[in-house]
Amino acid sequence: MSNKYTEDDLREELKTKEYEYGFYTDIESDTFPNGLNEDIVKAISKKKEEPEWMTEWRLEAFRIWKDMIEPEWANVNYEKPNFQGISYYSAPNKKPKYNSLDEVDPELLATFEKLGISLDEQKKLAGVAMDVVVDSVSVATTFKKTLAEQGIIFMSISEAIKEHPDLVKKYIGTVVPKKDNFYAALNSAVFSDGSFCYIPKGVKCPMELSTYFRINQAGTGQFERTLVIADEGSYVSYLEGCTAPSRDENQLHAAVVELIALDNAEIKYSTVQNWYPGNAEGKGGVYNFVTKRGLCETNAKISWTQVETGSAVTWKYPSCVLKGDNSVGEFYSIAVTNNFQQADTGTKMIHLGKNTKSTIISKGISAGKSQNSYRGLVQINSRAENARNFSQCDSLLMGNECGAHTFPYIEAKNKSAKIEHEATTSKIGEDQIFYCNQRGIDTEKAIALIVNGFSKEVLNKLPMEFAVEAQKLLEISLEGSVG
Amino acid sequence: MDLKEKLLSSFMVFEDRVDTNTYVHDVRNDAIKTFEEKGFPSKKDEAWKYTSLNKVLKEDYSVFPKQENALEYSEVKKYFIHDIDTYKIVFIDGKYSSHLSQTTHEGMDVCLMSAAFSKPKYRLVIENYFNKAANNDSLASLNTAFSSEGAYIYIPKNKLVEKPIQIIHFSTGNESALMLQPRNLVVVGENSHVQIIERHQSLTSNPVLTNSLTEIFASKRAIVDYYKIQNDNLKASLIDNTYIKQKQESIVSIHTFSFGGNLTRNNLNFYQEGERIDSTLKGVTIIGDKQHVDHNTLVHHIEPNCESHQDYKGIFADNSTGVFNGKVIVEKEAQKTNAFQANNNILVNDKATINTKPQLEIFADDVKCSHGCTIGQLDESALFYLRSRGIPEKEAKALLMFAFSNNVLSSVKIPELKQRITKIIANKLGVNIGFDL
Question: What dihedral angle (degrees, nearest 10) is formed by the CA atoms of A342, A284, A73, B312?
Fold first, then answer.
């Protein structure tokens, strides 16, 4: 450790550091013309060889979307996407089904190598099954056989529509209805692909399920649709993580994730999000408008963990509807914003059943000229006896050009409700740094230590494989901004 | 004809009747235009998400009372803090009652807005301060457009006002429904100190809607203690807009005690325009029935080294609804700000509702800002402890609720007022406990 490497050097280095994962792979893809109308919706559906009911479902969503207005309440400023200027379908056109890695397009493999997530390595790692999504269509599915033995269905949603129409038909749109919001309606109309997961009764999924999302085609929006169903008494841990190539024009991402935890089931959903946040001048970057929601039946538990470091604009509220008695909802989040990034993120905990519990831990770190908002809702309905909520939102500010905001909404309609909400905003204390210095830890390390400690509560909730990656991401996005 | 149209059409008549100081005339005309544009707030406005005025606005209010009404002091003595000597500015149905009031011009002005508007000697103060703190919210604009009467308090430099000032608005109910729009202006000079108690009281069960606006200007090192007692009957609704501008090292505290009224909305706005300012916002809300109390606070930290303390306690029974919407903004320049916000609530019945939204918007990095918010019940074991020592359930609960609100009560600086509020609380909880807190 050279002592000459000062904080200023580090700051300079990080400022000039280009987005590491900014490259672009040219995979021949068949892309639809820009714009959106009923014909495009029908064409997407046809392209994916979907049954009649799915086409109708999409069209209905499109009709609802047409009459909706883009929401403006979020605490973010951005140039609105031109929805007619986006191509709504793009898929790698070679899509044979692989059984081994040798069959995969070598160019694609090289892409993964650059990202540092070689499939080989992933396969070896503690049994992680990968359903790799490049530009909206599943290309490789691994560990499928092991999962199949347990009766677990883990496949792309387009396959699921064909192979398990009953399950999809029964659950899709039940947690996030088509008319839920502007982006959910848009997604329902044009979703290209995504993951489908079904865990049968009483099965504990033996491995962490994971999907890597990437945006890889200029000017294509990515509309992922994820549906996870955990049948009675089952357990699943699902990981989602993404990186995107650096592109100049704004890319739109409007995903919908639906989780259904039936009686006594448990779903753990973890996300590491590191999409291109735009350059140091705030140009470019991904718009991330996501609707994520889970439904808990009796004694069920849903736990959301997210580490958000990317995207120019983030607009994301993973929520839990605690419908069944004794159900539990959890939300652990770290949102880091730097340069001109804007994040408006948080959660909704809707308590409907008796003895329902929810925990919210949200850590916001803002640096540079970024704006970081926590927006949350805790709602206790009149029949939710003995509902319990604990929320904590802490913000750490670095530099005097960024902002941290909290907008917690708390609505209680039952007298037995116990709700606690705490929020703090501060910078790294001089006394804390002094304490570390005094014990021979230099300032740079001290800051890393403090930031790590600040985020630890959330990092601890991540599965092993992700925790490492998340910590790396935090370092990249942050340390240079510490002043 | 709905209330908005009625107000707009009566503005003409009103404007002809009052004396026209050109400055005030212009302000009023601008304000009515703003109100015409914006109209009454609806639930679609974020700031009014949890409070609907619809029901309240349905009444057929008369905007100008037709006759002057008189009241005997003995009838209304109980509404005064009468055991100490105070200055009093009393209004009956919006008209000044010289009979019940006790004003002064000796070394300071404790008098009427109508006088301040019309007499040339106040002109400079009016032009420098009137409508300089209020913003152009629709209800604030409405009040500004119709501003003609209220309390005018001007304390010059280096003056310690020895007696508290009481501002009381009575409505007699001689009109079937009445809308009042009092306008108060309080200017406190450097190093001066003043204590003010404000109360709105309706004497019958005819509906009253009060849209009150108070502007307070605290100069350097001034100290202002302002107490609002809201214990009206169930037909009276109150929209209380307060705007406070503070200069450096001034200390302003506003205590709001909400026990009565049908719908009460408090818009409390602090603007800190200097360094080392201290602002305190505290409140106790104890309501039941179908009452609705909404505290909407804003503290705007503009300069460095300032502090703000917010502490709101609420106890909600029956079908009542409580709303707390607290916002703290810390500007980029406002380094070393210390902002604290707490909102604690107890729900007594299943049908009571609490909506709370403590908001922080922070643009400076070297600050300490925190907010805490809880909704819960009385501690079962504490209750058991008291009962095991022979205190009946009702009294034990009351004791715990007293203790719950004590943080706010303890900072009331007028002992007689504290006693009075303690009594009101005891009354409200239906107990007879004779002790001071």
Answer: 10
Quote the tokens at residue B116: 């301040």
**d(C-alpha B99, C-alpha B74), whole Å:** 12
The answer to whether B383 faces chain A, any CB pair under 8 Å, is no
Interface check B106 vs A, CB under 8 A: no
Q: Looking at the complex, report in whole angstroms how far the Cα of residue A340 sits from the nearest Cα belonging to chain B.
A: 14
Q: Among partner residues B364, B365, B369, which is closest to A424 by beta-carbon distance?
A: B369
**Does the structure show a pLDDT above 60 at A119?**
no
Q: Is the pLDDT of residue B314 over 50?
A: yes
pLDDT tens-digit profile of A6-52?
Answer: 556 555 554 554 444 444 444 445 667 777 888 888 888 887 788 88
- Do residue A405 and residue B353 have CB atoms under 8 angstroms apart? no
pLDDT level of residue A322 (50, 70, 90 thresholds):
very high
Strand duo A29-31 + A90-92: pairing: antiparallel
DSSP structural state of residue A116: T
Burial (CB count <10 Å: 0-12, 13-18, 19+), residue A236: buried
Provide the angle, in degrees to the nearest 10, between the axes of the packed helices B22-38 and B138-145: 140
Could you tell me the CA-to-CA distances from A165 to A159, A190, A471, A478 in Å, in that order? 9, 18, 40, 45
- The token pair at B181 is 């729009």
The ipTM is 0.73
pTM of the predicted structure, to 2 decimals? 0.80
Whether chain A has a CB inside 8 Å of the CB on B332: the answer is yes
Q: What is the pLDDT of residues B21-60, one digit of tens each?
A: 678 888 888 898 999 888 888 888 888 888 888 888 888 8
Phi, psi of B174 (to 5 degrees): -70, -25
> Whole-angstrom Cα distance, residue A273 to residue B257?
47
Torsion, Cα of A441, A447, A449, A454 (10° steps): 150
CB contact under 8 A, B373 and A401: no
- Per the CB < 8 A criterion, the answer to whether B145 and B32 are in contact is yes
Chain-chain contact of B362 with A425 (C-beta, under 8 angstroms): yes
β strands within A285-327, DSSP E: 286-296, 301-308, 313-316, 319-322
* CA B167/CA B184 separation, integer angstroms: 9
Share of chain B above pLDDT 90, in %: 41
Most distant CA pair in chain A: distance in Å? 70
Higher pLDDT, A299 or A286: A299
* pLDDT tens-digit series, residues B105-138: 888 999 998 888 888 888 888 889 998 898 888 9
Q: What are phi and psi of B29, to 5 degrees?
A: -65, -40
φ and ψ of B36, to 5 deg: -60, -40
Question: Alpha-carbon distance B421 to B283, whole Å?
Answer: 12
In whole angstroms, how large is the CA radius of gyration of chain A? 22
Tell me the C-alpha distance between A358 and A391, whole Å: 8
CB within 8 Å: B370 and A405: no
**C-alpha separations of A245 from A477, B45, B123, B313 in Å:** 16, 40, 66, 51
Give the domain ranges of chain A.
7-481
Query: What tokens appear for B210 in the block?
Result: 């009060």
A209: Cα within 13 Å, side-chain hemisphere: 29
Least confident of A49-53, A474-478, B13-17, B173-177: A474-478
A contact test, residue of B375, B378, B379 with most A CBs within 10 A: B375
Place of tokens 């503005």: B11
A99: Cβ–Cβ under 8 A, 6 or more apart, which residues?
none
Q: What is the mean pLDDT of residues B220-232?
A: 93
Domain segments of chain B: what residues?
3-273, 387-437
Q: Is A398 on the interface with B (CB under 8 A)?
A: yes
